[in-house]
Design goal:
Layout (H helix, E strand, L loop, with lengths): L1 H10 L3 H28 L1 H4 L5 E6 L7 E2 L2 H6 L4 E9 L13 E4 L4 H4 L3 E2 L2 H9 L3 E5 H7 L6 E6 L4 E13 L9 E4 H10 L7 E2 L1 E6 L5 H11 L7 E5 H11 L1 H32 L1 H9 L4 H37 L12 H18 L1 H9 L2 H6 L3
Parallel strand pairs: 4-9, 6-8
Antiparallel strand pairs: 1-11, 1-12, 2-10, 3-4, 3-11, 5-8, 6-9, 7-8
Helix pairs in contact: 1-13, 2-11, 2-13, 2-14, 11-13, 11-14, 11-15, 13-14, 13-15
Length: 386
């Protein structure tokens, strides 16, 4: 009990230094949590990918469309259960800062292929019946205060003109990894208007989503799909949904890698901050440690004093930082357009890594002061002036 009492007294001996050290650790833990959350949010689409879904896109680039006629040909292949498609629409809702996915889809099959989008049957039927209807995610409805029957006006950019969609359904996410910030509407509605304008883009879709019966056959089925359209005017590349999502992540790979590295560099910064405090304390207390030795304090007692003080400071700083990380991430998520990070949650693993890092830093930062205190002879310690 006396050792614990000494630990608390030593910690509070230099109140300003201890306070600044705790604040430094807390800020570093907050930065670590935020950076790790951004990294995990960026990879959320990859983690949410289904093993039984393949993506068929244009072989040259994702931005080039595919003919609608490919759909029936893909559907006839062995192992294929359902084929649906999407077309990136974009457009401007309210202003250019309001970003979220706006997609033209096949209303008959989209929710069969994506069972993680939960939708009431009566709303789904209403959506299917009305050509100008749309389905929005629950997060989108909450953000813009939209409800069933409201009109969503969009100014077209990729597809110029004034577009209006009536909200006939609101889908819910099946779990926290499901994106609830998307908008779906009838591809036929888009195609009919393009045909009226005699556009060359009529009869084209962005990419196909192929639901297969056996995920183990994804390689063989992918090859079969691509073989169908080999040497055609629009050759295809088929890959798993996970690989398709990873392609988007890879486009910003250098930035994400840098953020990932920085999140762990911050752990080193925590170590330097706490290590500096503990080294200064050990140097100032060299004579005290020598006196403790003469009074019968063992090396174990000194280890307990120094390690305990280091751990107490690191745990206080880490705990304070974790406490502030939650509102920090909530504030960041509210400030950044939701479409950038549809899923932005503080993961449990991030909290565990941050807490473990704080404890590890407390242990490591005490090693040099412990070695110095134990290795210094009593006579040298008593002669020390610091």
């Amino acid at each position: 009990m006396k050792v614990f009492k000494l630990i608390f007294k030593n910690t509070l001996r230099h109140k300003l230094r201890t306070t600044l050290t705790i604040l430094g650790i807390a800020i570093a833990v907050m930065a670590f949590g935020l950076l790790r959350t951004v990294v995990t949010a960026w990879y959320s689409g990859v983690e949410a990918s289904a093993a039984n879904r393949l993506i068929t896109r244009q072989a040259v680039s994702f931005i080039f469309p595919l003919p609608y006629s490919y759909r029936d040909q893909i559907a006839k292949l062995p192992g294929v259960e359902t084929v649906t498609y999407m077309n990136w629409f974009q457009g401007v809702y309210i202003d250019k800062n309001q970003f979220f996915a706006r997609l033209a889809v096949d209303p008959e099959t989209i929710f069969d292929v994506y069972p993680e989008f939960l939708i009431d049957q009566d709303q789904l039927e209403a959506f299917k019946r009305e050509r100008g209807a749309c389905v929005i995610g629950s997060e989108l409805a909450k953000r813009y205060n939209l409800k069933i029957g409201d009109v969503v006006p969009i100014d077209g950019d990729i597809y110029p003109g004034k577009w209006e969609f009536v909200v006939r359904a609101i889908y819910r996410p099946r779990d926290k990894s499901t994106d609830a910030t998307q908008m779906f509407f009838h591809w036929q509605y888009l195609d009919e208007r393009l045909r009226q304008e005699e556009s060359t883009r009529a009869g084209e879709v962005g990419w196909y989503i192929v639901q297969i019966s056996d995920p183990a056959q994804n390689g063989a089925i992918s090859s079969s799909i691509d073989a169908l359209f080999q040497n055609s005017r629009a050759e295809t590349k088929t890959e798993t949904e996970r690989a398709f999502q990873q392609g988007f992540v890879a486009a910003a790979g250098a930035i994400i890698t840098a953020m990932n590295v920085m999140s762990f560099v911050i752990v080193g910064i925590i170590m330097l901050v706490l290590g500096n405090t503990m080294i200064m304390s050990a140097r100032e207390r060299t004579r005290e440690y020598a006196v403790f030795k003469t009074l019968g304090f063992t090396g174990g007692h000194l280890v307990g004093l120094i390690l305990g003080e280091s751990l107490l400071i690191s745990v206080l700083g880490g705990g304070f930082g974790l406490f502030l990380t939650v509102p920090l991430i909530e504030g960041f998520a509210a400030f950044v357009p939701k479409g950038w990070f549809p899923i932005f949650n503080l993961e449990s693993i991030t909290m565990i890594l941050a807490a473990s890092s704080a404890i590890l830093v407390g242990v490591v930062a005490s090693l040099f002061p412990i070695q110095r205190a134990i290795g210094t002879r009593i006579v040298d310690g008593l002669r020390h002036l610091g």
